[in-house]
Amino acid sequence: MTTKRSLAVFLIAVLGFAALGCSSDNQKSSSNQGKVTMVKGSPDLPDFYGVPDPLPTGKPGDVIRSEPADAPGLNGSMSRVMYLSTNINGEAIAVTGLILIPNGTAPSGGWPIITWAHGTTGIADACAPSLKPAEFVTMANGLLDAGYLVVATDYEGLGTPGRHPYIVGESEARGTIDIVRMAQNFPKANASKRYVVWGHSQGGHAAMFAGHIAKTYAPELELVADVAGAPPSQLLLVNAALQTSPYKHYIAMVAAAMNAAYGDQKADLTQVLTPEGLDFLKNMDTMCSSDLGKAAAGLDFTKLQKADPATIPSWNQLLKENDPGTFTAPIPVPLLIIHGGNDEQIPVVSSAVLFDQLCKIGQVEQRWLFAGQSHAGVIAPSYSSMVSWIGDRFAGKPMPDPIAPAGAVVQSCPSK
């Protein structure tokens, strides 16, 4: 991170805002496995992303296939993976992602794991970050050099058929945890069962929900800590803030994604979108986030939205169910929240309220607020301190951690 170019690559890798050309047409091609066919979410995707139909029998985390991924300059090896997971209805699905293994010999007990939960890329099949593995190099090298095996899920529906359930916490969490299970099964990975979740933006939301379900969803693994950068919470507040922001297309993304996850009975699009708004959703299957933002820039969203989702009981309930601010029990490991004071996407007050809400229910946590930093800009100045904080958690050091990053205001709960 010593040059402007490397910093730019780092931020692109972390936030996952790469614009990718997409298509929603399904393509089936015959395989040489009898009656099994390969189903692609887009005909433009590489053959690797063809999902076997039917899926192989197995458990969440079982490897369906893998292939080497080209990542020049990586201080380790990287592979693209497809693995079994489950959706929020408990049905088996295929999810794609990456596994990055450090050079050298694993310590006793295996490489400790960091599972990376990426930021917003879109909800179409071709918006999967694993399509551009080289963009992970700068971010990943600091973790690999520190002795961590890194796994990075694409989440359900990115790289694989169907719309991605954007901001559906349980879906994000399962993909993020099941790729840790995958590492246990990956040849020569020498993976530990101990792991930390780190995510930013949408990934911060995923990290919160992964921490929330980890103990019951994957009791055979050991979650050590949880790091959530700019996590969306207080979703009713965020929804209101987005109405007139340059990121108003996120509202349409959430609507389309929740309908894909919950169906018309719980998430009826005709309740919240006009015919013009429903027509705009077609872009979700052909564009990724940056292009969606451009497409929405000149639109009057008051003409697309029939009603504020917060005013429709079923939609209001879904927003609450997917809001980490509604947790009634603490995440059972130390939590670190990181936020930029000038975040233009996620209101700073939302993480302040979240911190207080969680503290009241007994969460062991810290919050680092970096004055003057934007949504993406907070990542670079917090990175090295965050890696040290993670190391302290793996080492079993007590909280609150004495680390005080330059430029950050630190809150701790409990304070001593």
UniProtKB/TrEMBL annotation:
Matching InterPro entries, A to Z?
Answer: AB_hydrolase_fold, Lipase_secreted
Region spans: Disordered = 49-70
- List the Gene Ontology MF annotations in alphabetical order: triacylglycerol lipase activity
Q: Which GO terms describe its biological process?
A: lipid catabolic process
Report the Gene3D superfamilies cross-referenced here.
Answer: alpha/beta hydrolase
Q: Which Pfam families match?
A: LIP
**PANTHER family in the cross-refs:** LIPASE 5 (PTHR34853:SF1), PTHR34853
Can you say what this protein is called?
A: Unannotated protein
Taxonomy, top ranks, is:
unclassified sequences, metagenomes, ecological metagenomes
